[in-house]
Amino acid sequence: MTDGDGSAPTSRRRHIARLAVFAAFLAAMFYLVAVARVIDIEVVRRAVAATGPAAPLTYVVVSAVLGALFVPGSILAAGSGMLFGPLLGVFVTLGATVGTAMVASRVGRRAGRDSGRALLGTQRADRIDGLVQQRGLWAVVGQRFVPGISDALASYTFGAFGVPLWQMAIGSLIGSAPRAFAYTALGASIGHLSSPLAYAAIAVWCVSAIVGAFAARRGYRHWRGHASGRR
């Protein structure tokens, strides 16, 4: 009886420690890559350009990994525009965005899924799983529209909550399309910021940010109303 009573707190502490280590790792990577800028994107661009005809595919793979390591997607997308132009660059950016979402969500699922379920409890975890099955795809789409949220961090979180890979891929493709165009077009027109393409990119970014802020506010109010009704 004593052993049984002591095992639950011990198991809980183990899950908390596991999530804390994972969170600390993500925080350290975010600081090193996004704040301290230990990765030189210009060097990456030159290395990719040196691969010749394989450069677009190479950039997709490299950017997918760098995005999962918290290199800002706007910088990677702008680099895609500078290297490949606005048309091919958009497809390269979208491929990298989907790749980042799948890599990060897979890692998040492996690192935090079991511990998260254990800490939430079976009943609450099953309820969240039901919501994920119903609305996971559109949650990913909506998050991509909201400005100021790291897509990589959101993908790690979605993975920990069990959002399937196909929902991550399709949701990222749909939700990231406006910003992918905006940042890639800005990168492609970096020397001509008064061009119609640059103005179009800025307009698309502003519209997507407004739509994202409105959707986030509406979703938060809906969640609060649902929570109040349950109480």
Automatic annotation (TrEMBL):
Residues 71-188 form the VTT domain. Its main location: membrane. It comes from the Bacteria. GO terms for cellular component: plasma membrane. The chain crosses the membrane at residues 16-36, 57-77, 83-104, 153-177, 197-216. It holds the Pfam family VTT_dom. It is a multi-pass membrane protein. It is found in: Cell membrane. Keywords: Cell membrane, Membrane, Transmembrane, Transmembrane helix. Belongs to the TVP38/TMEM64 family. This is TVP38/TMEM64 family membrane protein. It comes from Mycobacterium terramassiliense. The lineage of its organism: Bacteria, Bacillati, Actinomycetota, Actinomycetes, Mycobacteriales.
